[in-house]
């Protein structure tokens, strides 16, 4: 399903936004194939700011093949002809979500971000822990 053109009205975190579609219906959108640091996780705020710099209050195109268990649309977000999901990985603001991504392009972007120490890969202070591991550790406490 392609939702098409939508206006970004809120950034929830580094991989979730709220949009208004052409009929002014609000949708919660989870960026497909990436996983950004959680809000309370190191680099979570910076990841959210990075996504805001890419799509905040802009019109984007959404390609949404599915809906998750929280009823969020799972989408590739396009802005200015750019794949925003890939840009988040390339800028070091998110990981490739290994459980869901089946391609190779995002992995190449992640490897480049790591080797060039962009974003969350820049400093050891963030102890770059993938969000899926961070969430698991939090549940076990």
Automatic annotation (TrEMBL):
Domain called TNase-like: residue spans: 6-123
Lineage of source species: Bacteria, Pseudomonadati, Pseudomonadota, Gammaproteobacteria, Oceanospirillales
Nuclease keyword on record: yes
SMART domains: SNc (SM00318)
The protein's name in its UniProt record: Endonuclease YncB, thermonuclease family
Pfam family, one: SNase
Molecular-function GO terms, alphabetical: endonuclease activity; nucleic acid binding
Record key words, sorted: Endonuclease, Hydrolase, Nuclease
Keyword Disulfide bond attributed: no
InterPro entries noted in UniProt: SNase_OB-fold_sf, Staphylococal_nuclease_OB-fold, Thermonucl_AS
Natural source organism: Neptunomonas qingdaonensis
Domain of life assignment: Bacteria
PROSITE patterns, A to Z: TNASE_1, TNASE_3
């Amino acid at each position: 399903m392609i939702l098409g053109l939508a206006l970004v009205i809120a950034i929830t975190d580094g991989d979730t936004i709220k949009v208004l579609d052409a009929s002014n219906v609000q949708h919660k959108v989870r960026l497909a194939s990436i996983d950004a640091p959680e809000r309370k996780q190191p680099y979570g705020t910076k990841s959210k700011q990075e996504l805001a710099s890419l799509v905040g209050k802009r019109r984007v195109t959404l390609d949404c093949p599915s809906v998750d268990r929280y009823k969020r649309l799972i989408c590739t977000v396009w802005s200015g002809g750019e794949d925003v999901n890939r840009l988040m990985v390339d800028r070091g603001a998110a990981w490739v979500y290994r459980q869901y991504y089946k391609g190779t392009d995002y992995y190449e972007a992640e490897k480049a971000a790591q080797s060039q120490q962009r974003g969350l890969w820049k400093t050891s202070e963030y102890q770059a822990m993938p969000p899926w591991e961070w969430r698991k550790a939090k549940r076990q406490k």
